[in-house]
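Re: [ENG-882] Designed sequences occasionally contain unexpected residues at chain ends

Forwarding the minimal case from QA. C-alpha cells:
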C-alpha cells in the first residue's frame, strides 16, 4: 500500500469522525478523497460516494430514531420522489453524459469538469449552512402541522436529481425544506433528513450505478467500513468537544475544499 493510498484510508476514518462529531457534512469529502487520493474517475467517485453517504446516514438516522427525532411520515413523502430522482439520474443521465460537453479553441469543458464543478459549487452553500448557528423552531405537541405535500414532492425530486449528479447527500437543501414545508423543529429536521439521505442514496446507488457500472465491492466495503468506525469514534469524542465551534471550523474547511476542487479541475487540468 502506497503513502497516498494509506492517507486515503485515513481520510475515510476522518470522514466518519467528522460525521460523528458534527452530525453531518463529512460525507461531502468522500468525492474529493476518492477522486484525488485514489484517482477514481468522476462517474465512479460519485457512485461510491452515494453508497458511503447512504451507509453513514443510515447509522446516523437510526441513532436519531432511537432518540425520537425522526418524522417517518415526512421521510416517506419526501424520500420517494428523491429516490426516483437519484435513480433516474444515475441510471439514465450520468451514463449518457458525453466525455466533452463543448470545446472553445484549446479549452475543453469535460464531463469531469461539469460534475466536479457542480459539486464544488454546491459545497459553498453547504459550508455556509455549517457556519450558521441553527435556530430552534419551537413546536407545541398539540400544534396542527399542515404539510405542503406538493412542494415537498417537488423538492424531493429536485434534491434527488442533484444527489444523483454530484454524489452528495444534500442535507443543506433538505433540512431548510423540512423546517419550512413540514413545520419541523431543527432536531427532528436533522434526524429526518438523515433517514431521507440514507434511503435515496443507497437505493439510488443500487437501482442506478450497481446496474450500470463494474463496482469494486471489496474497496467500497473497506472504505465504508472505516468511515463507519470513524462515526462511532466521533460520537464518543463529541461528548468532550464543543459541537458548534467544531462545525463552524468544518464549514470553513469545506469552503476551502470547494476552492481546491475548482482550482484542480479548471486550472491544473488545463
Amino acid at each position: 500500500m502506497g503513502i497516498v493510498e494509506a492517507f486515503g484510508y485515513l481520510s475515510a476514518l476522518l470522514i466518519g469522525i467528522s460525521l460523528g462529531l458534527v452530525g453531518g457534512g463529512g460525507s461531502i469529502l468522500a468525492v474529493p478523497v476518492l477522486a484525488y487520493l485514489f484517482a477514481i474517475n468522476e462517474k465512479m467517485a460519485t457512485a461510491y460516494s452515494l453508497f458511503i453517504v447512504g451507509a453513514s446516514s443510515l447509522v446516523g438516522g437510526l441513532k436519531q430514531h432511537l432518540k425520537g427525532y425522526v418524522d417517518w411520515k415526512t421521510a416517506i413523502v419526501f424520500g420517494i420522489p428523491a429516490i426516483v430522482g437519484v435513480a433516474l439520474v444515475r441510471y439514465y443521465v450520468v451514463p449518457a453524459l458525453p466525455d466533452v460537453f463543448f470545446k472553445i479553441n484549446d479549452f475543453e469543458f469535460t464531463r469531469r469538469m461539469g460534475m466536479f464543478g457542480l459539486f464544488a459549487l454546491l459545497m459553498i452553500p453547504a459550508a455556509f449552512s455549517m457556519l450558521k448557528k441553527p435556530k430552534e423552531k419551537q413546536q407545541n405537541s398539540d400544534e396542527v402541522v399542515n404539510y405542503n405535500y406538493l412542494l415537498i414532492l417537488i423538492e424531493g425530486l429536485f434534491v434527488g436529481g442533484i444527489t444523483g449528479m454530484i454524489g452528495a447527500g444534500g442535507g443543506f437543501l433538505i433540512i431548510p425544506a423540512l423546517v419550512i414545508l413540514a413545520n419541523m423543529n431543527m432536531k427532528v429536521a436533522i434526524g429526518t433528513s438523515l433517514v431521507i439521505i440514507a434511503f435515496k442514496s443507497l437505493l439510488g446507488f443500487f437501482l442506478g450505478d450497481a446496474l450500470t457500472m463494474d463496482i469494486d465491492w471489496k474497496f467500497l466495503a473497506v472504505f465504508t467500513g472505516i468511515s463507519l468506525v470513524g462515526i462511532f469514534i466521533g460520537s464518543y469524542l463529541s461528548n468532550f468537544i464543543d459541537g458548534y465551534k467544531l462545525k463552524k471550523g468544518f464549514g470553513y474547511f469545506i469552503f476551502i475544499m470547494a476552492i481546491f476542487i475548482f482550482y484542480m479541475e479548471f486550472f491544473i487540468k488545463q
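QA comment: On inspection the terminal residues look reasonable. The chain has a mean pLDDT of 83. Proposing we downgrade this to a documentation issue.
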